[in-house]
Structures are given as C-alpha cells and as structure tokens.
Design goal:
Pfam families: Aminotran_3. It is an enzyme of class 2 (transferase). The chain is α/β, with parallel strands linked by helices and 441 residues long. The chain has 2 domains: 5-51 and 342-439, Aspartate Aminotransferase, domain 1 (Alpha-Beta Complex), CATH 3.90.1150.10; 67-341, 3-Layer(aba) Sandwich (Aspartate Aminotransferase, domain 2), CATH 3.40.640.10. The protein is built from 15 helices and 15 strands. The protein has helices at residues 22-27, 53-56, 65-77, 89-101, 115-132, 153-158, 162-165, 202-210, 236-246, 268-272, 299-305, 325-341, 343-359, 390-401, 423-439, and strands spanning 32-36, 39-42, 47-50, 106-112, 140-144, 175-178, 215-220, 250-254, 278-281, 293-298, 367-373, 376-381, 404-405, 407-409, 412-415. The radius of gyration is 22 Å and the shape is globular. Bound molecules: pyridoxal-5'-phosphate. Pyridoxal-5'-phosphate (PLP) binds at residues 114-116, 119, 148-150, 221, 225-226, 254, 256-257, 282.
Length: 441
C-alpha cells in the first residue's frame, strides 16, 4: 500500500500520548492508518487482526457502513445543538433505544463523552440523589481494589490501581474499598468462578465501621476488565445487591467494558441477573467511533430530582457535548448494527469455542492462569523476577509483529475481540499467542 505523507508524520514529539511508554513508542512507532472488519492496516501496509476491539470498544468491528453513513449524514444535517436548555431528536431517540435494551427499570439516560465522565456523573448523581431525598449525610463512596473507573478524580478515588492514584495527591476523601474478587482458589476458571461470593460481605464491615447513613454509593465493574479480567464469583453480585438494598445504598455497575454484548447480553447486569440502581457505559455505545458515554438510571433515582418549581434546573451537571448530534447518530447506527447482526447473541454462542481455544494455552511457557467470560479472556504470565510487566509487554510487541493485536495490563494478556470474530480468527489469535509464548524469555 502506498504511504502518503499523512501516514508518516515526520515529527512525533508534540503529541504526548496517553497511557503509553512515549519514548519507547516514538523510537519504534506502531501506526494504524486504516481499519476494516476484523483488521487494522499499519503504516507499512501490514494487516493486523484486532484481538482487542480497539480498546474494548469496536464491538461490531471496524468501518461498519451504517455507522459511517449515519455520521456523514448527521454532520451534513445538524452538526451541533446546544446541550443545555435545547434538544435535538437523535439524542431522545437514542435514549429510548438504550432504555429498550437496558435492564428493566433503567428508564433514564444521562449523556457524557467518555467512560470517565460517566463515572463522575454517576457518583455525583448518587450524592445529589440522597440529598434530594433529605439524606445529605450520605457522602461516602465505596469502590473496590483493582477496580478501574477511568481517570478523573472521582474515578481514581474509587478505583483501586495504585499507579493511577499515587501520583495525584489526596484524591476524594471519604472513600473506602472492598477487596477485589481475584483469589488463587479460582485459578483456570471457565466462566464465573465458584468461590468468593463471601467477599461481598466486606461491605457489612465497612457499614459497621461508618454507619450506613453515611454511605452514598458502591461502584464496581460487574467484571473488572482493565486490571486483567477479574471475574465475579457466582453469587457475589447478588450479595452486593442485597446488602446495598438493605442499607439504602446506591449500587452502580460500571459497564464501560461489559456493556453492549461483550459478555453475551446487552449489559453485564442482564448476564449476571443483578440490576443495580445505575449503569455507566461508553466505548461500545458508539462502537468506539465517536466519543460518547452515558449513565443509565433507575426511575427512582431520576424521579427524586423531579420536584420543586418546574422552571428550575434539577441537576446542576452536564457537558457541552452531552448527547452531541453526531455522537447520537453514531449511537443509533451502532445499536442498529448490533441488532441486525444479532451480535450480543453471537458473543454468547461463540463463548464455548472461545473458552476452549484460550484454555488450550494451559501448559504454554510462562502461563500461570487463564480465565474467560463472554468474548473476554485473560492469560496471566509469570512475571520476570524484579521486572514486572516486562514479559507481557514483550508478548504484546511480538504478537503485533506477527499480525495480532493484543493488550497487556501488568503481566496479564487481555483479549476482547470484536463480536463479529470468526472461529478461524479465534484459532489464529491462539496459535499466534502459542508461538509468541514459546519463544518468549
Ligand atoms: C470500567 C471502566 N470504566 C471507565 C473507563 C474509562 O473510560 P474512558 O477511557 O472512556 O474515560 C474504562 C476504560 O477502559 C473502564 O474500563
């Protein structure tokens, strides 16, 4: 493929890349210039099989015509409308479609532009909800160790990743953390692990310590993605739901990764059979194509705000781009694409094949654990002594050289291909990983 000047920027220094080893990247750049279906095209003209749906977001694969056309048409018709005190039809249509596929009772949608903003919005809504009901003393927020809730201050405060927290001061006060659910007894789990439901009971300890009347919300990923695919033990989420309900605490599921088919249902809440009070989502909402996030709210949350004089703003929160017309059009086209291709069911159908393929890597060099659910998988490697993350990062580079995009976090390889993946492509990912691991120091 001929390379034009645009594909080869001659100076890489100005762009400070996010969550990237900038100096390593810029000394040996990995540039994508095009994408279609399951494949990226690199600047050198190589095809790379997408084992990660971009960054857990392109669930319908790349360059889907319906989405491309919807964005083009919307840009030509209504490019922007003020988000405050004005509306446009697409944002309402998308909210209605989201409510249709969301768990029963999730009847309202608050738009944001990213997962991080969805988390901040949900935490703020939880605090304001209690205040609106006369329980202003409920200000504590509970997150979980090894949780990832984006990178803004609320999210890193309730999140449980040391590197995302320790550089940034004192964070929010009044935050506690539940223990994570990744226990050694559940090694080599296929689907939801058997052991660990009792880990939810730690919430009772936190309640006993502070008093339920001081606690506003608990936020967890129903399945923690970014810290290496940590699965919810059977019964764990049910227990968390029961304890939060018993004590009037808002339960928020952060479904930025698990939303939109990744675990074989529209939302993890449906797959796991537990309905929280709010769901945060982003990524797959627009197939990753245009930034957009959302908070889905139960009616009881929303309705608590709908009081007082009707000319007054009920929630003092929102973004210039909340429900942006082009993002809304992309969201509508994305949901239609998922429906047309029946992709949520497809993820569930492929799960057994995916599971067998991944677990066939048991016994490969350095592999100390494999786990999976829906079209998500993790292969955990033994870290090189004294050099954590080095081995997995090398696996990432080697797989890329062999034409497969994987993602690594710590020494864990995380996989989350587009839901359109074919079984032969699953085989290719696993075979490539087998070769990479066999050759890895
Ligand atoms: C569970 C979860 N919450 C929040 C976020 C943050 O989303 P964003 O990067 O769009 O701000 C992510 C991103 O991976 C995520 O996995």
């Amino acid at each position: 493929m001929a390379l034009d000047a645009k594909s080869r920027p001659n100076d890489l220094s100005a762009f400070w890349m996010p969550f990237t080893a900038n100096r390593q990247f810029k000394s040996n750049p990995r540039m994508f210039v095009a994408a279609d279906g399951m494949y990226y095209t690199t600047a050198e003209g190589r095809q790379v099989l997408d084992g990660t749906a971009g960054l857990w977001c392109c669930n319908a694969g790349h360059k889907r015509p319906r989405i491309v056309e919807a964005i083009q048409a919307q840009a030509a018709e209504l490019d922007y409308a003020p988000a405050f005190q004005m509306g446009h039809p697409r944002a309402f249509e998308l909210a209605n479609r989201l409510v249709e596929i969301a768990p029963d009772g999730m009847d309202h949608v608050f738009y944001t532009n990213s997962g991080s903003e969805a988390v901040e919005s949900a935490l703020k809504i939880a605090l304001a909800y209690h205040r609106a009901r006369g329980e202003a003393g409920r200000t504590r927020l509970i997150g979980r160790e090894r949780g990832y809730h984006g990178v803004n201050f609320g999210g890193i405060s309730v999140g449980g990743i040391v590197n995302n927290r320790k550089h940034f001061g004192t964070l929010l006060t009044g935050v506690d953390h539940l223990p994570h659910t990744h226990i050694p007894e559940n090694q080599w789990s296929r689907g939801m692990p058997e052991l660990g439901a009792h880990l939810a009971d730690d919430l009772e300890r936190i309640i006993a310590l502070h008093g339920a009347e001081t606690i506003a919300a608990v936020i967890v990923e129903p399945m923690a993605g970014s810290t290496g695919v940590l699965l919810p033990p059977k019964g764990y989420l049910q227990r968390l739901r029961k304890i939060t309900q018993d004590h009037g605490i808002v339960l928020i599921f952060d479904e930025v990764i698990t939303g939109f088919g990744r675990v074989g249902a529209a939302f993890g809440a449906q797959r796991f059979g537990v309905t929280p009070d709010m769901i945060t989502c982003a990524k797959g909402l627009t197939n990753g194509v245009i930034p957009m996030g959302a908070v889905l709210c139960g009616s009881h949350i929303h309705d608590a705000f709908m009081q007082g004089p009707e000319n007054l703003i009920e929630l003092f929160h929102g973004y210039t781009y909340s429900g942006n017309p082009i993002a809304s059009a992309a969201g509508l086209a994305t949901l239609e694409t998922y429906r047309e291709d029946d992709l949520f069911a497809r993820a569930l159908d492929l799960e057994p094949y995916w599971q067998e393929a991944l677990h066939s890597l048991k016994g490969a060099r350095h592999v100390i654990d494999i786990r999976n659910l829906g079209l998500i998988g993790a292969i955990e490697l033994e870290p090189i002594s004294g050099h954590p993350t080095k081995r997995a990062f090398q696996a990432f580079l080697d797989a890329y050289d062999k034409g497969v995009l994987i993602r690594t976090t710590g020494d864990i390889i995380a996989l989350s291909p587009p839901l359109i993946i074919e079984t032969a492509q699953i085989d290719r990912i696993v075979e490539t990983l087998g070769e990479v691991l066999a050759a890895l120091d």
